[in-house]
Amino acid sequence: MSRRALIGAAFAASLLAAGAAQAADQVIRIGATPGPHAQILESLKPVLAKKGIDLRIQEFSDYVVPNQALDAGELDANSFQHQPYLDNQVKDRGYKLVSVAQTVNFPMGIYSKKHKSFDEVPNGGTVAIQNDPTNGGRTLLLLQDKGVIKLKEGVGFKPTVLDIVENPRKLKFIEIDAAQAPRTLDDVDAAAINTNYAEPAGLSPQKDAILLEQPKGPYVNVIAVRVADKDKPWVKELVDAYRSPEVKAFVEQKFKGAVLTSW
């Protein structure tokens, strides 16, 4: 064989090897809401890339579609919700989904453009809360913890406005989609906003919230996958990467206490 033919054969072999290596790479499709959840997942990419895993992040603007997409097989995992929300979705919609790891906690905050403290909210004032039972209930529990309202005994983690038994300031609660909460601030006295929606709207839980939840209870966020996939090797790789020292350092440096790691 001539020298030119040898070089050509070697070049072809190298292309085949590169193609095989590329084909061998694992792809994980993961869904998240914009803001901190998606930003944290971006920090996983180099950690997973070292293990030949390509993490592809798809952002969703609400809390409903990520579980629909995961259950339908359009995603491999998602990272945007806490355990009570996932449990409620599984119960109400029949999804075959399960959490495989805890991730981070976002303290719930109540914000206002009109008042510098919640004490300034007038009698009969309007307060926007989330219209899904887990996040709306979480807000009502926060208001009870701060002495603003009182709820029925034994309501658990998903109370509704119908469970309010004492509302001395006669506050009016307006239920809205969680993703729309920042947009209501011009129209209401105060609004409960999840941190993953507050941060992209330029709101800091530590600086801007007029009421802030103490990080406790079941509200640590989770990674969810389909039940059929929970024991697959790539799930462990994903969890290990998320809970790595590199990601912990990113969260602490980026969010400065507004997002708390669970590990």
Automatic annotation (TrEMBL):
Domain of life: Bacteria
Gene3D superfamilies the UniProt entry points to: Periplasmic binding protein-like II (3.40.190.10)
Pfam families in UniProt: Lipoprotein_9
Membrane association type: Lipid-anchor
InterPro entries from the UniProt entry: Lipoprotein_NlpA
Keywords recorded for this protein, A-Z: Lipoprotein, Membrane, Palmitate, Signal
Localization in the cell: Membrane
Lipoprotein keyword on record: yes
Any Gene Ontology CC annotation: membrane
SUPFAM superfamilies the UniProt entry points to: Periplasmic binding protein-like II
Cleaved signal peptide residues: 1-23
CDD domains attached to this UniProt entry: PBP2_lipoprotein_IlpA_like
Chief localization: membrane
Family: Belongs to the NlpA lipoprotein family.
Name of the featured protein: Metal ABC transporter substrate-binding protein
Gene source species: Alsobacter soli
